[in-house]
Amino acid sequence: MKKTTIALCIALQCLAAGAAGNGMDKASNEKASTDRASVWDLSPLYASPEAWEAERQAILAALPGVRQLQGTLGQSAASLRAGLDQLSSLRRRLGRLNTYASLLADENTQVTANQARRQLGDTAANQFGEASAFVNAEIAAIGRDKINAFLAQEPGLAPHRFALMNTLRLAEHVLSLKEEALLAAASEPLQQPSAIYGLLANADLPWPTIKIRGKTVVLDQEQYVAYRADPDPKIRKQVFQAFWPAFKAYERSFGAIYSASLKGTVFSARARKFGSSVEMAQSGDNIPAAVYKTLLQEANAGLPTLHRYFQLRSKVLGQKQAGYQDVYVPLAKPSRSYTVAEAEALTLEALKPLGSDYTSKLQAAFGAGWMHAVPQRGKRSGAYMNPAAYDVHPYLLMSFSGEYNSVSTLAHEWGHAMHSVYSNANQPYETADYATFIAEVPSTANELLLADYMVANAKSRSEKIFALSQELENLRGTFFRQAMFAEFELATHEATEKGEALTGEGLSKIYLDLLKRYHGHDQGVVKIDDVYGIEWAYIPHFYNDFYVYQYATCISAAAFFAEGIGKGDTALRERYFTLLKSGSAGEAYELMKTAGVDLATPAPYRAVVRRMEQVMSQLEALLAQK
């Protein structure tokens, strides 16, 4: 009943940039490596790779027992409970198994043994999926009346109630036993485009070499992130002119990989009798179609605010018209760099409005080996929190550079981790997982509370200007950029559903048109060169269908919570923690509404745009001071 794939909550800062890099230069690497809690401890998962392998074999040996459950679930309330408990126990073990394998693989993508272990873990999960493929069809056949009677008879079924009701809700999309088994068997090959993309984009792509201030730089993803914000506009231009052609040279290959992924998604949607891919994606959490539609509508309505921000940037940078290479350069020089320990201390201070219980739990977790923060060659790009080891604790990956963006990313990812801490402490395994629709709220709320703290505690005019500009960049990257990504995803899936051919060149054209519209190219706001249309190939999150739009919806909800909690609204804080503790004990959209935010209406999105306008006005007033 619970998803067998590991839910990775990808970091806001990484996604806002497209796909963040693995670190900065050698000095930053060495600095981060001296901090405490910079490398995770995986021993609570398994004492050794050999122990992991023994558990994998034990799980595989248990799979025949799963198949033997077929035909027994409807016999009685007791048999239904016994069967679901058995399935839940194996999923729980698989979550831990795949957490260990994926963390080791991401720590260094160039270690073949770790990649092989990840594949073995994925295969075990897929084999479990095949063995249990009958479950949804069997529950659908039992029917709502009998299931309700079983729930009344057997209190031990309570942890499975929500999943049972969800399965019955989706019964029209459940196929015959043979068809379900076939789709389960197809899951592994359907995952391959994502795996192939990851290897090409992270490990195998030949990167250009350029000279920057006399230093030879291999312009891979980590160095691109390091130098795209360089204060020298000539260097930024040089970096963009060298980096993006590296992706453009493989446009056909990236296009074939992503097109294969799209076709796999459309195949699954049609096989399950959904009207569209986006309908299938939102059906699992029962998200109203109005949410996606309203987000894109309001993001486009708010483009004048985004363009105002870009024009303000150009004014501050002394440019008549910015180019795309100028989007990431800070509007003010940071006053300092940070160690991991300093970032943690700053985060604790910023999150005091959440209460002492939250900050004490967070402080204890900081020193417990949950996070890998050291930049290193071969490390998976981006950042995430992995919550799948329910019996241990969450794990986090990022590459801490010492810049403020890394501090913000740290606060973000620990927001995810603390969400899992509260959910796991208040929910059984079966309902401890939470929908992505909610997942980005506590992480983004942490970032906004951090931003508010940095503005309020700035020690100088320049420091305050930096803090305000960072908040603006956060709002741009999380709301508008994710909405643009969401619009691209919708366009590409709809084109595939219509049977249109999507080549790499065609995908670049779709993306370029969006890039130009969102950045005001035709209005002379930001100049977008055609080569930047290949940026879609840089975004790994497109392989997780219709995930990114929830960053934009979640920052809208997070802004609501952060503003009220920051002002001391204890009733709102109580509702917020109720949300964190609820896991998937109810439908995500309804849980959010109960907390006070309806994301199917324009109001939350307009509030985010208003917040951006207000921050810009603050910044303009500061800049006007002599």
Summarize the structure.
The chain is mainly α. Helix content is 64%, strand content 4%.
Structural commentary:
With 626 residues, the chain is mainly alpha-helical. It has a domain at 40-198: Oligopeptidase f, N-terminal domain (Butyryl-CoA Dehydrogenase, subunit A, domain 3), CATH 1.20.140.70. It contains 26 helices and 8 strands. The protein has helices at 12-17, 26-33, 49-67, 77-107, 112-131, 134-142, 144-153, 161-169, 177-204, 221-227, 233-248, 251-271, 277-283, 289-301, 303-317, 340-350, 356-366, 404-426, 429-432, 436-456, 461-497, 504-518, 549-566, 570-581, 588-595, 603-624, and strands at residues 9-10, 209-212, 215-218, 322-323, 371-372, 384-386, 395-397, 526-527. Strand 6 and strand 7 form a beta hairpin. It starts with 8 loop residues before the first strand and ends with a helix. Residues 1-36 have low confidence and may be disordered.
Query: Major sheet, described briefly?
Result: 4 strands, mixed
From the alpha-carbon coordinates, what is the Rg to the nearest angstrom? Answer: 24 Å
Structural class given helices, strands, pairing?
mainly alpha
CATH-derived architecture of the domain at 40-198: Up-down Bundle
β-strand percent reads under 5%
Strand order across the largest sheet: 1-6-7-5
Described by the principal axes of the CA atoms, the overall outline is: globular
